Amino acid sequence: MKRRKTILSLAAALMASAMLCGTAMAEETCKSYLTGETVSTQIGRVRPIAMMFNNIYDAIPQCGIEKCGVVYEAPVEGSITRLMGIMENYQDAARLGSVRSCRNYYIYMAREFNAIYAHFGQAVYAEPILNLPTTNNLSGLGNYGDLIYYRSDDRVSPHNVFTDYDRIQAGIDAYGYDRAYASGYTGHYQFAEDGETVALEDGMIAKVVLPGYTYNHARFQYNEDTGLYDRYQYGDAQVDGNTGNQLAYKNIILQYCDWESFDDNGYLNIDMTSGGRGKYITNGRAIDIYWEKEPSDYDEYYTTIESVYSHDDVYFSDFNVTRYYDMNGNEIKLNQGKTWVCILRDSVEAESMIISDDPSISSDAIDY
User: Fold this and answer.
1) Looking at beta carbons, which pairs linking 7-12 to residues 24 or more positions away fall under 8 Å?
2) Which residues partner with 253 through β-bridges?
3) Domain CATH code at residue 255
4) CA atoms of 78 and 98, how far apart (whole Å)
5) CB of 221 within 8 A of CB of 230?
6) How many domains does the chain have?
7) Are the CB atoms for 90 and 69 separated by under 8 Å?
8) 238: helix, coil or strand?
9) Which contacts (CB < 8 Å, 24+ apart) does range 55-60 have?
10) What is the rounded distance in angstroms from the CA atom of residue 174 to the CA atom of residue 89?
11) Domain membership of residue 84 as a residue range
12) Residue 189 needs a FRET pair 20 to 30 A away by CA distance; which of 39, 48, 96, 293 works?
């Protein structure tokens, strides 16, 4: 009788264990729109945030930036670059920032991902687009700025604005923004399938990538052991301030854009809609590409009031997804993983360098 009870107890324990495993196995998953990797739907089908990260020397290291599946780097005034990180899985980041102000062209990038845009302040030229009812943004100068952001005492203002997951969620609730992706949104990039590798076998060897940002001497170096591009700037490894980990990326896109100056103060108007040239870099190789805005089949638009922007009509199609094509007209596939997009003025394209024959070259040896 005792042996029978033991067997029944063991059977019950095994059944309970199986039920728990079944629950875990039944967790719904999906492909991330940011990385192409399999993630929980609680992460991959909740709208990401697109956060402005300060990138001057006094503001590094950035905190939480390694949580970003996609990072955009673009020039602002004085050849300084500013980063916009798009993240969906940042719940455990101790803090996020430091957060800086908006420029008009970053909004186009953020909206391509249907992201909620997080920034602390803005240039006047960004206001017409920020004020559109379809631009969901969390501004540090808005009504709920003090709810969303705080200033730390370990950095000097204005480089000490930070936030975290709970504050971001409180801001989303305060503004009543939808956490679900917009109906019909299917993602930005085309990714390789599980087990598939984009090798770019006909591409040029690309061991070191210098985008051409001369202020911070940005550099990516291919790591043969990890298959990723390690990120460097200011003559040293770029790391996350929360963890100390060096930033590393599977894909790099160089996107050359037409541009003009808004005024004599150095504010740039980078054209994110008209298309242009570029390069796609992964797994130690690079190919030439071109980029275009996804076409739209409707003509609806918003007309801004007393706009100081370069044109008064902001079309829905301006916010369509950017597609990247090889020189045969085929949309490229990215390898699964993180992507860094360098937005570059087409007039300085010659300053970009891809070094193929000396992977050990140091940033100190590069003449910008």
Assistant:
1) none
2) 280, 341
3) 3.50.90.10
4) 20
5) yes
6) 1
7) no
8) coil
9) 55/80, 55/81, 55/82, 55/83, 55/216, 55/233, 56/80, 56/159, 57/216, 57/234, 58/155, 58/156, 58/159, 59/98, 59/100, 59/155, 59/159, 60/233, 60/234, 60/238, 60/241
10) 21
11) 31-365
12) 96
CA quadruple 170, 175, 176, 179: dihedral sign: negative
Residue 237, pLDDT > 90, answer: yes
The Cα 165–Cα 89 span in angstroms is 10
Q: How many CB atoms lie within 10 A of CB 342?
A: 26
d(CA 276, CA 289): 9
Is residue 26 one of the residues assigned to a domain?
no
The CA-atom distances, in angstroms, between 197 and each of 69, 224, 260 are 18, 15, 38
pLDDT at 195 over 60: yes
The Cα 338–Cα 112 span in angstroms is: 17
Task: Tell me the pLDDT tens digit for each residue of 8-52.
Answer: 444 454 444 444 444 445 689 999 999 999 999 999 999 999 999
**The three-state (H, E, C) secondary structure of 11-46, written as one string:** HHHHHHHHHHHHHHHCCCEEECCCCCCEEEHHHHCE
Is 323 within a domain? yes
Residue 309: pLDDT over 60: no
- Predicted confidence (pLDDT) per residue in 43-80, tens digit: 999 999 999 999 999 999 999 999 999 999 999 998 89
Domain membership of residue 108 (yes or no) is yes
User: Does 289 reside within a domain?
Assistant: yes
Running DSSP on this structure, what letter comes out for residue 204?
E
Q: What angle do CA 103, 106, 110 make, to 5 degrees?
A: 145
The rounded Cα 57 to chain-centroid distance in angstroms is 20
Which DSSP string do the residues of 245-300 spell out, in sequence order? PBPEESEEEEEEE-EEESSTT--EEE-SSS-EEEEEEETTEEEEEEEEEPP-S---
